Every structure is written in C-alpha cells, then in structure tokens.
Amino acid sequence: MRRFARRHLALRGLPAAVAAIAVAATGTVASGAAYVVTSQPKTGQSETGRATPGRTPAAAARPTTVVPASEQPSALKHVVPPDFLIISGQPVSKRQLAKVSKLAHVRDVITVDAGAIRLQGGQANMFAVDPARFRAWTPLDTATDDALWTALGRDQFVVSDDVQRQLGLRSGMQYAIQGRTQLMATMGGAGSLGLPGINVLVGRTAGRRIGLVPDIGLLVNAPGADLDTLQSGLRRAVGAQSQIINLHEKQYQPKASKKSGRPTSYLQLYQQAAGTCPGLSWTVLAAIGQIESDHGRNVGPSSAGALGPMQFMPATWRSYGVDGDGDGKADIMDPFDAVPAAAKYLCASGAGRGSLSKAIWAYNHSQAYVNAVLSLAHSYARRFS
C-alpha cells in the first residue's frame, strides 16, 4: 500500500542519500576529537528571489545553549504515511513546494530542517520538526506515543531505537548535541522514526540553535499515485540535485516495533489483523480502511454516526470491538483495536468461508461499496505482489 511503508536503519551504514541532508564538514575541537558541522548553502538568490543564508561562524566560537521548555503538542488526530523523502541541495522554496503540491495524487507535504550532528561520540542525522504536525508522519507505534511528543514539545530530543542502543543513551539525561553550535538538551525518549538514516528529532527552535539547514527536507504523501511517475514529477519540481528516496523500496519495508512487537504501519496492522481470519486477505482490510477513513485520516463521526479509522457504528462496536493492543480497553478510535475488530466482523460475516462479497455487504449495505472494495483490494494485491 503506497502510503504504509515504514523504514528504519541503524546509525552506521546509512544510505548515500543522507549525505545530502547537510554536507558534513569536519573540524577539530581542543581535545582533538572530530565534530560534525552542518553546512548551509552559500549566500545567493533562491527561486523566490530571497537571499539564502550564508555560513555562520564555527561551533567553537559559539557558547553552549540550554534549550528552554515550550508548549506541549496537540493530540494525534490522523496519520499521514509518507511515500517519498526528499533531501534538497538547498532550502525548498515556496515555488518548488507549490509545484510538488500540484502533482497528481499528492495530498500532503511537510518540510523539515535537517543536518548532520555529533552526539555522544557518534555521528547522526537530525530533523528539526513541529511536533504537533510531524507526529502524524511517523510510524503508528511512535505517532501514538504521547510521551515522545510531549518531550519534543518541551524542547527535549528523541532518537531512534537503534541509536539509543548504539550510543548508550538514557531518557532523562542531558547530552551535548554538536552541530554548528553546541547545545545541551535532555533526551526525551526513543522510538522508530521510520525514515532511512534519520536518527534524531528535535523541535524547530532547538534545530535553529544547533544550526540545522532550514527546509532542506521534504516528505510527500500521495495515496494512489504511480510511484515511478510521481518520482519523475518530484525530480522536475525540486531539481535534479535533490535526493529523492522512494520509501516503498524493499530495504525500507516496515519491521515490527522492537519495544512492543506492535505493527508500526497500517500495512503491518492490516496484515496482522487478517491473520486472525483464515481466508481473509489483508488487501480487503486495506481497501476498507482507505475508503472509510483514508487510513485513519478522517475518523469521524460520519453523518451516520460512525467512528474511528474503520468507521464502526457504536452499536456494532459493542458487539465486535476488540482490545487489539492489550491495553485493557477496546477503543473504537484506536487503529490497533479497530482494524482487528474489522477483521473479526468480516470473518463473522463469512469473509473467510468464501463469502467475501456478502461480508463486505454486511459492512456497508451497498453494491457500489462492495465493488469499490474489491477493486481497490485487487489494486493493492497487484502493487504488493
């Protein structure tokens, strides 16, 4: 499903594409240790006619900064699985962003500040984000972890699970983050970040103080797009110098969360839930999930009163709702509960016994709906065969 895939790579062995985040320049501090400095584009004119910022003084000339607390982010309202990660050679201009937004099937885009940093003796790649907006673009297990986003809202930093393990980082401890300047910040937690080579997240205020390059990263969500066609369009929109990473390539396919074992994407969630009903294909759940809520983007209530990512009526939920994630409650709004509940309902209606059309009809009494689900399920099967 072109909007599901979640990718996660370790600190070492990063893809070449990450080098474009911010070409790392190596300097030497008094101790002789190397540090990584984020590079900025040279002063010049952008597509919008505005001068782009030039290089600022080296880190050694700047004092250490302690990041203050700030507002907590808002609650997760929907998910926006990214299809492409773009690392541009210079900040993405408003004109380029408009071109990307006008491409066929593109529904959402988000820009981030980015750069290479030094943390606890290791090199990492950092995104500076708006926590309230960016959480929707992360794997499900991370997007639903309120503690991580509260930490980012307090100007703490968050790392990938692998980086936490490799560098021996501990939540609640302060660490020096060395970019263009050095900044002391508290680690707020770890999780799957879902983007190849991106190891650390901070808020945009902290990112500016570290010296990350503004708006050099771009995530694109385009449900239903032909990925090859879209990639060509993106290259025309942002320029041949940009790194454009198709997040659906095999090496970036999702893995279950090492912490909880829970799915980290809707793709995994549909696949796991389908396994509870022998004979039911995950593609049917995916098709229903797209039609009903666009995979959690529009969770209702509908005009008929249906709720959640799989759009259950409350009365039906009382009979078929399940506690899919073992947190002690069956929550109609929680995808970890709603998707397996949909599988349960379809199974009870005959989906696993050769009566798929009848089961889909039971879900929504419309032959047009049945036809749409089956057609979309076939499309997913072809895409992921």
UniProtKB/TrEMBL annotation:
Entry keyword set:
Signal
One example of the protein's molecular function in GO is: peptidoglycan lytic transglycosylase activity
Q: Which PANTHER family match?
A: LYTIC MUREIN TRANSGLYCOSYLASE, MEMBRANE-BOUND LYTIC MUREIN TRANSGLYCOSYLASE B
Location of the Transglycosylase SLT domain: 300-350
Q: What is this protein called?
A: Transglycosylase SLT domain-containing protein
Positions of region (Disordered): 39-64
Instruction: Write the signal peptide boundaries.
Output: 1-24
Single Gene Ontology BP term?
peptidoglycan catabolic process
Output compositional bias ranges, type Low complexity: 48-64
Q: Does the keyword Signal apply?
A: yes
